[in-house]
Amino acid sequence: MTLDKAKSAPEFTLFASTVRGNKHNAIYQNRMTIKTCGDLATAVSYDHVSAEYANSRRTIRNFVKSDCYPFDVDNGHTDDPAHWVTPKQVQQAFPNVPYFVAYSRNHMKEKDGKSPRPRFHVYMPDAEIDCADEYKRRKEAAISYFPAFDSNAKDAARFFFGVEEPQVEYYGGDTLLSEFMETLPKAEPKKTKRSTPSIPAGERNSTLSHFAGRVLKKYGDADGKAKEAFLEEAAKCTPQLDEKELATIWNSALSFYRDTIQADPDYIPPSEYETDEPKPSGKGDTQATKLLSFVESSGARFILSDTSDPYAVLPVAEHNEILPVDGKDFATWLHKLYYEKTGKTIGSEAVKQTLSVLSAKARFDHSEPIPLHTRVAGDNNIIWYDLTNPDWQAIRATAQGWNIISDPPTLFRRYRHQSAQVMPMPGGDIRKALNYINLRGQETLFLCWLVSCFVPDIPHAMIIFYGEKGSAKTTASALTKAIIDPSALSTLALQRDSRTQVVNLQQHWYLPFDNVSYINEETSDALCRAITGGGIQQRKLYTNDDDAIFTFKRCLAINGINNVATRPDLLDRSILMELERISETERRESADLQTAFEADRAAILGGVFDTLSKAMAIFPGVKLDKLPRMADFARWGYSIGEALGGLGQEFLEQYAHNRETQNDEAIANDPVATLIVELMRDKDSWDNTVTALYAELHILASKHKIRTWENNYPKDPTRLSKRIRSIRSNLGAVGISVEFPARGSQAQRISLKS
Q1: Do 291 and 338 form a contact (C-beta atoms < 8 A)?
Q2: What pLDDT, on a 0 to 100 scale, did the predictor assign at position 280?
Q3: How far is it, in rounded angstroms, from Cα 581 to Cα 594?
Q4: Which segment of 70-74, 383-387, 653-657, 726-730 scores lowest on mean pLDDT?
Q5: What is the pLDDT of the chain when averaged over all its residues?
Q6: CA separation (Å) from 421 to 11, 79, 442, 517, 656?
Q7: How far apart are CA 208 and CA 254, in angstroms?
Q8: Rounded CA separation 673/678 (Å)
Q9: Which of 362, 340, 423, 356 shows the shortest CA–CA distance to 387?
Q10: Is the model more confident about 441 or about 365?
Q11: Distances from the Cα of 225 to the Cαs of 218, 241, 263, 446, in angstroms?
């Protein structure tokens, strides 16, 4: 940064979270450019950091860069108000250095048993720096110069709690902190005299006996290295032991080594031990050391996933298997490996020690996390599909075709509920799927949606199967699950518990929620995030401060007698599929239906991949004149429709008609939208304040017997304004435009036109 002396304050960057006062939070995703006190007040109203971190996750290892040095003044050094530090004194200590001050949440409050006192944070803008160690060193230098700065707040991952009502100040200057520190005299390094520690009388025999045992384990007794090290240690005794005493100590240790240590079948001799560290002691330690060597020679690799979880990549036969290090399957593999190598069982403590080391290898031997996917992975050029079979095979699809790969790259994680997919039949027939879903029209839209579920990393429209009793809604959900993402769980319950819902989203690619009768606002928002991709932070089970960040773009389905997606945001992301009731003459027994479906599944799946490959060739050249909210889905849907035999336009028409139906549903299920449509039925325009509209809609609500006291009706004009903004596009689709003219100093106005 070069300071512009014409400006009143230098510019710098903070990164804010979306929470306040949460010490377990690690995500700071909101970049805030600070130019004024007002900017700072906005930023510090949330928990915040002064550095950018990879993936917005605050850790020292993730440090990317910073252009600000933050310091904490807590005045905990004294209870005498005369010696409390103020922002003015910071200015005296750092003359002509510009900085901002934000008073902390405990300013002039009791804290940790100490009386109220000034407590504040100092933010000193500076040149951008991208080295965490150098960043810490410079903070340490400033703290050493001005000890009133908290010495516990010097590393590169420091965060500050947000303040509900921030108080901020600016102190001007035109010299950066780094420039100021360069003007200070350099401290002379302290000269220290190295001394050799002595072994005093009373401790000589026990110390040398213990040391002799350690070096014998380390070097053995073959080449004299252990005896040489022992004699060097003995030279530290004050006063010296005579040669006879030394010989007695050494021979005693040597006898114990030969008779006991070497006789232990689990002892690893020095010739087999590759490091120069002392040998571990105890049976469990030696088992763990052996097991680690067996793991290393097995060819296993260890990686860190994109959710910061350690995984093992194990070579098995002609393929690799990917297992979580902290999972039961990997622990079982370790037990099996040890038994195969030694013919003996291994203790649980040795396995626990081994797992700790391997977890550390995964975390620190590989700087870049590896994304691991569920079922589907890839991009527009190559799409991978995990068959979840025992041979860990996957399908590789490109614009040139698809084939089965026996040793795919490290792409997928697996879960116990997943079932093996059938081998797809080349030259299959995707239209056989229509024999098992009782659609009332929209077949092209359904088939395009089905194939789109094999495309990774795009928002997928959520399909809503609805219809009267006997229309096989659950069957439609279960059979599409078998085609897209086979599992022992053919359908799922829509969970209210957020932790269970996160687990479901993590472990399934396609989630068909069965027999849903109501979706509240919170669940509706969560489903929207799962469709379009959103992060969820959640603390890991049985821990105090470990957390995990989950991001999802999943394929979803819901079934119920009625359409339960009533909120506009969720409807915009959905496809409504009404199913026909099956007559008694056409109804089949479940077992017969399942048998017929299984006979066709390979052909259906082969048809899916044939169509997907063709669509991948078409997709790059597709440019749509109009893009709906689910733009990626629409573009892929058109490409898939073309791959089905020139049905791209038919897909667009059916999708447009479906969105009209969605809009009708949105208006019918929203009392405010319903009342505005009724208000404008015989009017060309309406222009007044939001307060006046609130009163007029109340009159209409009473006339049409709409219950304004229920939770889904706005309780005041402010909430009415927010609701109208959220349904503006729905009203526009039925010909009613909504405008909010510039407010100025008057009450908020609203203009409706039809």
Answers
A1: yes
A2: 44
A3: 19
A4: 726-730
A5: 86
A6: 56, 70, 27, 31, 33
A7: 12
A8: 9
A9: 423
A10: 441
A11: 9, 20, 21, 77
- How much is the pLDDT for 6? 35
Res. 124: pLDDT tops 50: yes
Q: What is the layout of strands, in order, in the sheet containing 574-578?
A: 510-513, 555-560, 462-466, 574-578
Sign of the dihedral through C-alpha 329, 335, 339, 340? positive
68 forms beta bridges with 125
**Residue 401, strand partner residues:** 398
Retrieve residue 33's tokens.
Answer: 């450019």
Confidence of residue 541 (pLDDT cuts 50, 70, 90): very low
**Half-sphere CA count of 657, side-chain side, radius 13 A:** 11
Find out whether 400 and 580 touch, Cβ atoms under 8 Å: no
Helices 590-618, 473-484: inter-axial angle, 10-degree rounding: 50
Q: And the tokens for 748?
A: 């908020």
d(CA 570, CA 482) in angstroms, rounded, equals 25
Written in H, E and C, the secondary structure of 368-388 is CCECCECCEEECCCCEEEECC
Rounding to the nearest 10 degrees, give the CA dihedral for residues 336, 340, 346, 350: -80
Closest CA to 752 of 691, 699, 679: 679
CB 655 within 8 A of CB 637: yes
Q: CATH number for 670-753: choose from 3.30.56, 1.10.287, 3.30.9, 2.60.120.
A: 3.30.56
Backbone angles phi, psi at 297, to 5 degrees: -75, -10
Q: What are phi and psi of 30, to 5 degrees?
A: -100, 105
Q: How far apart are CA 218 and CA 280, in angstroms?
A: 9
Identity of the amino acid at 693: L
Q: Where in the chain is the domain with CATH 3.30.56?
A: 670-753
Q: Which two tokens stand for residue 64?
A: 């990317």
Q: Give the pLDDT mean for 200-213.
A: 81
Overall average pLDDT of the 100-119 stretch = 90
Rounded Cα distance between 157 and 11, Å, is: 21
Mean pLDDT to the nearest integer, 429-438? 94
Hey, which residues does 738 pair with through a beta bridge?
Answer: 752
Q: Where in the chain is the domain with CATH 3.40.50.300?
A: 433-641
End-to-end Cα distance, the chain: 54
Rounded to whole angstroms, the Cα distance separating 484 from 151 reads: 55
pLDDT at 542 over 90: no
Q: Are 420 and 450 in contact (CB under 8 A)?
A: no
- Using 50, 70 and 90 to split pLDDT, how confident is the model at 588? confident
Model confidence, pTM: 0.60
| Mean pLDDT (whole number) for 42-49 | 91
Beta-ladder partners of 575? 463
The domain made up of 433-641 has a fold known as: Rossmann fold (3.40.50)
Measured between alpha carbons, how far is 462 from 477 in angstroms, rounded to an integer?
A: 12
d(CA 720, CA 701): 14
Render the burial of 156-171: b for 16+ CB within 10 Å, e for the rest.
bbbbbbbbeebebeeb
Report how far residue 22's alpha carbon sits from residue 43's, in angstroms, rounded to the nearest whole number. Answer: 15
User: Which structure tokens are listed for 575?
Assistant: 């496809």
* Structure tokens belonging to residue 295: 């793991």
* DSSP per residue, 596-640: HHHHHHHHHHHHHHHHHHHHHHHGGG---SS--SSHHHHHHHHHH
pLDDT at 264 (0 to 100): 63
